[in-house]
């Protein structure tokens, strides 16, 4: 995410601080214990970064997943293409889709056309994994901020039931008219939504709007609020994500 005119000078700083946030999380994380090969079926985790960030900068996240059930997990950290972003005066930066204003609120305007274009690319990555032999039940899409919004859209519009989708500090990037396109199989994909209550970039109210929207779609959502957390990912959130995915891998294997 990035600031509007009022916050324009902090654009570069936010991109830097996000990278620093991830780095600090990893530095504070204990070295994972060695894991033994696990007989469970192969799984796939697709991680979608936030505005102005990159896939490689987020790769250390996978070091939090130390359970043996992740021994056969394939990770993917793609980078968004460079695109002009309206809320940053048209500046070109890594962006999955256009964003009109920062902070994002529950009523912020959506650029649904560019969101749907980005969804197609996410679906192509999922299709490729399924073609390679990975069960849809062992595929998880996760994302932070803009990547979290794209995660939500991609999960809702994918025609098959997946293992799950995890949204961190994200928002609903689609209008309610999109609900009629959600298939019965897509409705069975569970969502984990985590949001910091002190978030000033994607306001907490934008996160709170997620569960009611998903309820209308008939999608199960587990919402977790984190007091004092701003626009970043905490160690606690990642530990929760590990447990959440682990429980679903066990049930779908």
Automatic annotation (TrEMBL):
Annotated SUPFAM superfamilies: alpha/beta-Hydrolases
Superkingdom in the source lineage: Eukaryota
GO terms assigned for molecular function: carboxylic ester hydrolase activity; palmitoyl-(protein) hydrolase activity
Any one GO cellular component localisation term in the record: cytoplasm
Keyword flag Ribosomal protein: no
Membrane-traversing stretches: 6-27
Keywords, ordered alphabetically: Fatty acid metabolism, Hydrolase, Lipid metabolism, Membrane, Transmembrane, Transmembrane helix
Family of the protein in this entry: Belongs to the AB hydrolase superfamily. AB hydrolase 2 family.
GO biological processes: fatty acid metabolic process
Gene3D superfamilies xref list: alpha/beta hydrolase
Identification of the protein by name: Carboxylesterase
Phospholipase/carboxylesterase/thioesterase domain sequence ranges: 36-246
């Amino acid at each position: 995410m990035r600031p509007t005119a009022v916050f324009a000078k902090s654009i570069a700083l936010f991109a830097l601080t996000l990278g620093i946030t991830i780095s600090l999380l990893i530095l504070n994380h204990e070295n994972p214990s060695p894991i033994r090969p696990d007989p469970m079926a192969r799984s796939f985790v697709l991680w979608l970064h936030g505005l102005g960030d990159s896939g490689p900068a987020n790769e250390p996240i996978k070091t939090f997943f130390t359970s043996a059930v992740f021994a056969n997990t394939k990770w993917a950290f793609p980078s968004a293409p460079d695109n002009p972003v309206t809320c940053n005066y048209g500046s070109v930066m890594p962006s999955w889709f256009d964003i009109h204003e920062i902070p994002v609120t529950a009523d912020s305007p959506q650029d649904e056309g560019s969101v749907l274009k980005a969804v197609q690319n996410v679906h192509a990555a999922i299709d490729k994994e399924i073609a390679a032999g990975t069960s849809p039940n062992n595929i998880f899409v996760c994302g932070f901020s803009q990547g979290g919004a794209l995660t939500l859209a991609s999960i809702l519009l994918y025609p098959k039931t997946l293992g799950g989708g995890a949204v961190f500090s994200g928002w609903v990037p689609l209008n309610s008219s999109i609900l009629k396109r959600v298939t019965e199989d897509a409705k069975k994909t569970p969502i984990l939504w985590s949001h910091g209550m002190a978030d000033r970039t994607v306001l907490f109210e934008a996160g709170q709007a997620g569960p009611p929207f998903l309820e209308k779609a008939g999608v199960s959502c587990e919402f977790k609020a984190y007091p004092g957390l701003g626009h970043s990912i905490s160690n606690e959130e990642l530990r929760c994500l590990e447990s959440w995915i682990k429980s679903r891998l066990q049930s779908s294997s």
